[in-house]
Amino acid sequence: MVPCKGVKLFEDGQRLFLTTEERHQFRDTIRSLDTLHRIFCRLMYYTGCKLHEAVEFYPNQVKARDGYVLLGTKGKNLLERFVPIPPAFTIELLIYLRPQTRSGSRPLWTMSRTTGWRLINDAMNKSGIRGKQATPTGLRHSFAISCFEVSPRIPLDHISKWMGHRKPDLTASYLKAFQQDEIESLGLLWNHF
């Protein structure tokens, strides 16, 4: 893959995002974590949120009836936005939230960004994922790239909204990386014939 302008997806020749296989390894590994840590990791996995958004996540940000979570903070770099989550994860969140207060006055968990980073990093290690991509940011990047992998493709404006990007050009830089990957894959395919 060739580096592209916008989002930094490569550093020193190494990618800074998870491949589809690595995402699936991570997903499978976090199934065995305790409830609190599993939900934290799944929030990042399914929404592509930034680490600070996950750490500062409040119970009242779950919009279960609509299958969304509210992310972002007005006035910061990211736009406030609703991000869809899978029905099974919605149910898991509701079950976890049931015994807790839903007042939303306290974050869902009490952890620092450092603890959140360590939690994601430990899950990556357990998944066998090592390298510069094995970070919360790598998980975020892979969420965006994964959105381009589904067929039919998810519209760019949807992905941009879910990522909280103010400028669609930033989201488009993920597409450039994905298209470059397709070009390289075609090269491998044609060499195979």
What topology does this entry show?
Blueprint: E1 10-11, E2 14-15, H1 20-30, H2 35-47, H3 51-55, E3 62-63, E4 68-71, E5 81-84, H4 87-97, H5 113-126, H6 136-149, H7 156-163, H8 168-192
Helix pairs in contact: 2-4, 2-6, 6-8, 7-8
CATH class: Mainly Alpha
Question: Helical element count?
Answer: 8
| CATH architecture designation | Orthogonal Bundle
Order of helices and strands: EEHHHEEEHHHHH
Give the tally of β-strands: 5
Helix/strand class: mainly alpha
Proportion of strand residues: 5-15%
Task: Evaluate the radius of gyration.
Answer: 17 Å
Coarse shape = globular
Strands side by side in the biggest sheet? 3-4-5
As residue ranges, the low-confidence spans are none
Largest sheet: 3 strands, antiparallel
What number of structural domains do the residues give? 1
Tell me the CATH superfamily.
Answer: Intergrase catalytic core
Mean pLDDT: 83
In CATH, the topology is named hpI Integrase, Chain A
The helix content, as a percent range, equals 40-55%
